[in-house]
Design brief:
- The chain is 38% helix and 21% strand.
- It is of the alpha/beta class.
- It folds into 2 domains: 148 residues, D-Maltodextrin-Binding Protein, domain 2, CATH 3.40.190.10; 96 residues, Periplasmic binding protein-like II (D-Maltodextrin-Binding Protein, domain 2), CATH 3.40.190.
- The strands form 4 sheets. Strands 8, 9, 10, 11, 12 and 13 form a 6-stranded mixed sheet that branches. Strands 5-1-6 form a 3-stranded parallel sheet, with helices on both faces.
- The protein is globular.
- One of its GO terms (biological process) is amino acid transport.
- Belongs to the bacterial solute-binding protein 3 family.
- This is Transporter substrate-binding domain-containing protein.
- Keywords: Signal, Transport.
Length: 269
Amino acid sequence: MFKIGTALAAVLVFQLAQAASLEAIQKSGQIVIGVKDSSPPFSQLDVKTRALKGYDIDFALGIAKRLKVKPVFKTLESDDRIPWVKEGKADIVIADLARSAEREKEVAFSTGYFVTDTRILAKKGRFKSERDLAGSQIALTSASSSVKLMRKSFPDTKLAEFEDKPEMLKAVLAGVVDGMLGDGPVMTATLAQIPAAQRSQFEVSDFALDTKTFGVAMPKDEKTLQIAVNNALVDMETSGEAQAIFNRWFGPQSSQPMGRIFRISPSRN
């Protein structure tokens, strides 16, 4: 009985490992993409249309188009991103996921499609420099790369981990924590969500704690899929589509304008 159960488990593991191969994806005619639904401007659920939209969503659509398959979106939380890839719950994950040496031991990453930094949203004047982090309590997303950053570089800062940014913002507005940490553009978008009567009391820090590169996550050893995703991203750059997507979400007319300091290239950003 034990031998049969072990054999079945081995078959299931093998099937999951094969589920995200390029051949299997193209044969099925669809690609399952793990994304967030509450991380604007990268991805969010439009309350009117009930459709997902954002920078990550546009790139997901561009990749699916170039692979000639239908995109099937599945929403996840930050701490689901790596497990979903490893467990075969998603073929790829595009969810403002920063590359790191630790994460690359578990999953494969595409070339970078966005470069950003980490900033703090808090009451005005609370964080004028990194020195003000000492002794403070900061909210951040569990399983985010920022957790490791804070523990290593700012050990005197108390961390409060949350599943999503709306809960973090509630904690900030209630004064439960001193501030919340996240990607600069996301913090700017979150600031805009604060009720107008309170918004002027808050700000996003002028200083950044680090710089990071977002990549598409996929199973390790799926080199053919990784090459195909990289080729799709590079094609989006050379065709001008990547720039257009950036302008849509971060250009002068967007809610959080910023300069584009990177280009998507075949070599890793």
